[in-house]
Amino acid sequence: KADKAPKLADPIKASIDPATQQMIARAQELGIDTVFDRAEAMKPCAIGATGICCKNCSMGPCRLPLPKGGIVGEDTRKGLCGATPNTIAARNFIRMIAGGASAHSDHGRSVAEVFMSAARKETDAYQIKDTQKLLAVAEALDVATTVEVDGETKARDMDEIALETAEKALNEWGKSEGELLYLKRAPKPRYELWKKMGVLPRNIDREIVEIMHRTHMGVDQDYRNLIKQGTRAALADGWGGSMLATDLQDIVFGTPSPIQSEANLGIMKEDHVNIIVHGHEPVLSEIVVAVAQSPEMLDYAKKKGAKGIQLGGICCTANEILQRHGIPTAATFLQQELAIITGACDAMVVDIQCIFQNLANVAKCFHTKLITTHPIAKMEQDNVIHIEFDEHHALDDAKKIVKMAIDNFENRKTEVMIPRHKAAQVAGFGVESIEYHLGGSFRGTFYTLNDNIINGRIRGVAGVVGCNNARTRHNEGHITVVKELIKNDVLVLTTGCNAIACAMEGLLTPEAAGVYCGPGLTEVCETVGIPPVLHLGSCVDNSRILLAATEVVKAGGLGNDLSDLPVAGSAPEWMSEKAISIGHYFVASGVYTVFGVGLPVEGAPVFQNYIFNEFEKLYGGMWDLEIDPIKHAHKMIAHIDKKRKALGIDK
Ligand code: SF4
Ligand code: MSK
């Protein structure tokens, strides 16, 4: 009956992006539900959303909603076991850190295993591509890069270095003693602070396991002690699993450098075979890129009536192949179903993380082959094809996938509707290219980052990252926050789906400087020819932001620690546990970090105050929450100004 029909999303209210609006309407016309409609039909639980529902044992779930009118006098809320709202919120929060840290770190482990195969020369598909990066990583992992021969220092054999580096790297996940070797890459005062606070991670896996133990029913019941372990696990992510993932990917796949491309659903082509890769790990997609560009496959596609093969990416797999090969970005996290609804997606190849199970239901309505590739990420629906990817047979697996997509081109049934919207982007930045493009060092000339921060042309630097969230208008928070920051001369470093949103809005072009930026940032960007928003890659590449900030500290003139810098972090539309882990390692590294949407701590005011305010005294960085994107940006700017004043560089 009409009155029982589910409430559908209003496309204009659901997204600021015209391509997305068009495709939501198209899905509704075809009677296919998308995340935007489901968000209308199902509202979140207010108790869970504020962090105060505990289901850690079967006497619960115990729900401790805030009393109407707030807490008057003593907060007497408690679960059956007596757990307070602070204990429950802290346990839930650090379990999110465990989820996020394990996702990033397990991704890192897979890359380390591929690196080991390459170092052992067990595979033809992967080689050491960047020996400079290998030497830098070897040094950070205490691997000798030279040898003494007859009293002379000589360069050590590169194969030997690679092998020992791979062993040392893999050891970081499970070594029985010591601490993570990368922690010493941080500025010395930061390392010493972590040591004093007792939060130096011992190995990556242990810190995550310990969270699961401590949050088990009846173990750790002090929110301060719980978040201390959350801090240790988050550091194991940012300065461990994620940083190793980034570095080892650079060694095996190449370190990105600025590259031009395009973004949004309009990159798909009606007369081409469209293959969309989605997820996070570049281990397979790197090979899919190579195979899809091979003359053999291009000829095969032409034989089948297509003009060529168009590859496109979604989420961070997109960011990985964009950074290194300029493959255009098809969509953000929230647009994944829409890519299939174009009717032109011949294969969607997914690996791990951020993949909607509903893709299978949407694919059923079209000819799209939905292919899962990872042993830890399968789908129950029977139309999903599982081609398990294995680094030892990488080329064969990738050929099978690309061929399957080409064979599927002729099966398109529904009328194809690809939105025409797409924007140009320049991506591929990293620590090395920031240094290179801004004068070849971080300090000492008219062009360098530190000098431009000190002279005030650049007011500060913001790391704006993270997902989309169907509980808030798609891309609105991302774009409003970033535009407000650059308008106020704050240089933005971006990763993840924020980077994709910025690309779709044209903010990742040098030309954006003259349109959107304040006078200081415009001058810098126009002088050196960079965009005001620099795309640093995928979610694990947030580690590049940590290392860039470390280089700024080392170059001098802006304090001695990361917490002295005029910088701030933000995730305006976060949704994943990984975002909480990233947010927390930013905070523990000394960065003021603001999230939008909401945080699952609001139901526990004492715990919230601890990580929002007390944490600044402990770590120099702290959490904040601001849903209004303009206020969100101005809170970051106020913090940047506070740091400028403390440094004596406010004018
Ligand atoms: Fe309830 Fe305590 Fe069990 Fe949590 S651990 S569900 S608060 S009894
Ligand atoms: S993909 S974690 S939605 S940024 Fe890394 Fe985007 Fe968030 Fe996934």
Draw up the topology in text.
Blueprint: H1 11-14, H2 18-30, H3 35-41, H4 46-49, E1 53-54, E2 62-63, H5 85-119, H6 131-140, E3 146-149, E4 152-155, H7 158-171, H8 188-197, H9 204-214, H10 223-253, E5 259-263, E6 273-279, H11 282-292, H12 295-303, E7 309-314, H13 315-325, E8 329-331, H14 336-341, E9 347-350, H15 358-364, E10 369-372, E11 384-386, H16 394-408, E12 423-427, H17 431-437, H18 449-454, E13 460-464, H19 476-487, E14 490-494, H20 496-504, H21 512-516, H22 519-528, E15 533-535, H23 542-555, E16 567-571, H24 577-588, E17 592-595, H25 605-619, E18 623-625, H26 629-647
Parallel strand pairs: 6-7, 6-9, 7-8, 9-10, 10-11, 13-14, 13-16, 14-15, 16-17, 17-18
Antiparallel strand pairs: 1-2, 3-4, 5-12
Helix pairs in contact: 5-7, 5-9, 5-10, 5-24, 5-25, 6-7, 6-10, 9-10, 10-23, 10-24, 11-13, 11-16, 19-26
Bound molecules: iron/sulfur cluster and Broken Fe4S4 cluster.
